[in-house]
Design goal:
With about 120 residues, the chain is of the alpha+beta class. It contains two helices and ten strands; from the N terminus they run βββαββββαβββ. The protein starts with a strand and ends in a 9-residue tail after the last strand. The protein binds iron/sulfur cluster.
Length: about 120
């Protein structure tokens, strides 16, 4: 039985509305894309959706209480919530350099989570 799936392309500000038609998991057609990137995006969303994880973790002894962190690459979308839960238990010590690895190989994905910015140590 055929089915249609709708996505919004997030690869540029045009945000094209995409419609992917499939039958029993086999992609038949993608429509609505303004360029080839949208077709690739719809196929990826249908077969293996991926996301970058972004969140904050608490900092001990820093000039700010929270450090923004992100995964260096995408991970499977279905693992994002679990990754956020894992990161919720992490506390880092200031100072931190942007790009510093905060969690290696999050959930065995092979993807590291890094600091998104520098964070200085609070002066006493
Ligand atoms: S399909 Fe192409 S033009 Fe449309 S939003 Fe995606 S990248 Fe932009």
């Amino acid at each position: 039985m055929s089915a249609k799936h709708e996505y919004t392309c997030i690869n540029c500000p045009l945000s094209c509305s995409l419609e992917l038609a499939e039958e029993e998991g086999e992609v038949l057609d993608v429509q609505g894309q303004g360029c080839k990137v949208g077709e690739k995006y719809a196929m990826q969303e249908f077969t293996d959706p991926q996301r970058v994880v972004t969140t904050t973790v608490p900092v001990r002894g820093g000039t700010l209480p929270l450090l923004p962190v992100r995964s260096v690459r995408t991970i499977p979308k279905m693992m994002v919530l679990e990754a956020a839960r894992r990161l919720a238990s992490v506390v880092v010590e200031a100072p931190v350099k942007g790009g510093e690895v905060i969690v290696e190989d999050i959930l065995g994905t092979g993807v590291d989570v890094i600091a998104s910015r520098d964070l200085e140590e609070e002066k006493q």
